[in-house]
Amino acid sequence: MIDVIDLKKNFGDNEVLKGINMTINKGDIVVVIGPSGSGKSTFLRCLNCMEDPTSGKIIFEGVDIADPKVDINIHRRKMGMVFQHFNLFNNKTVIENIMLSPVLCAKKDRRKAVMHNMFHKDKLPVRPVKEIKKDAEENAHKLLERIGLEDKADVYPSTLSGGQKQRVAIVRSLAMNPEVILFDEPTSALDPEMIGEVLDVMKALAADGMTMIVVTHEMRFAREVAARTIFLADGKIEEDKPSHELFDNPESPR
Ligand code: ADP
Ligand code: MG
């Protein structure tokens, strides 16, 4: 699904990623561990082109999305991202947070279809905006049910606990039907008693076959859920191997 080839990223003279090579197959659950400042967040942000790589290739479903000529928006829709600090929109209700991207993208597709139909004989279907919203809303309710938060649909994120916010952020990313979800330390900002409920949602996703790349310090999650663990240090992959091997027989003393 994803082939990362010699990915490098500099910020000025700071060489943060020094040539990363990695293959992610459909259904893989890969955990990335490594000390603070080793480039884990930068790596995830390069993967979905929130940061432009300095050089290298990111082949996602056959297309090099690091190539500036490629329309990244089309591909980025298929990559969900979950952040340490949830990044929910605090001025929108829970359900509005979940509906926002699907509705925006469907409207964008609708506009494209309208434009196309003005100039071409072959007509593309144009979905009524009402229908777009109704579908997104129904789907959002289903997603909230899945995490047991259907009663929170109309509240604002500020009224939720950290664990609830992160579960909402996870289903918000699911609302786009992503091919892969990137998690950047999803439990690091949580009180200890809330970590379990978020990991449980992630485990359920893993069991459903979702492809996941997870930066985390939760070693037990890595060991139990991820077939593969990658150890990133100083912008390079130090180890990339089956989790049980990495934990039981690490090559790197670090
Ligand atoms: P990690 O997530 O492993 O803690 P990061 O990817 O956040 O590491 O950071 C790696 C290095 O890149 C750090 O030295 C950090 O200061 C630098 N860095 C990250 N983002 C930026 C940025 N937007 N501008 C400049 N330097 C950055
Ligand atoms: Mg980070």
Verbal overview:
The chain has 254 residues and is an alpha/beta fold. Helices cover 39% and strands 24% of the residues. The chain is built from eight helices and ten strands. It has helices at residues 40-47, 72-76, 94-119, 129-146, 162-174, 192-207, 219-225, 243-248, and strands at residues 2-11, 14-24, 29-33, 55-60, 63-64, 79-82, 180-184, 211-215, 228-233, 236-242. The strands form two sheets. It has a six-stranded mixed beta sheet with strand order 6-7-8-3-9-10, sandwiched between helices. Strands 2-1-4-5 form a four-stranded antiparallel beta sheet, with helices on one face. A hairpin with a 2-residue loop joins strand 1 (2-11) and strand 2 (14-24). Helix 3 packs parallel to helix 5 (162-174). The radius of gyration is 19 Å and the shape is globular. The two termini are 30 Å apart. The mean pLDDT is 95. Adenosine-5'-diphosphate binds at residues 11, 14, 16, 34, 36-42.
What is the helical fraction, as a range of percent?
25-40%
**Mean pLDDT over the residues:** 95
Inertia-based shape: globular
Strand content is: 15-25%
What is the H-and-E element order?
A: EEEHEEHEHHHEHEHEEH
Number-wise, the strands total: 10
Q: In this structure, how is the largest beta sheet organized?
A: 6 strands, mixed
Extract low-pLDDT stretches: none
Strand order in the sheet with the most strands: 6-7-8-3-9-10
Radius of gyration: 19 Å
Give me the number of helical elements: 8
- Spell out which ligands are present: adenosine-5'-diphosphate, magnesium ion
Coarse structural class: alpha/beta
Give the end-to-end Cα distance, rounded to a whole number of Å.
Answer: 30 Å
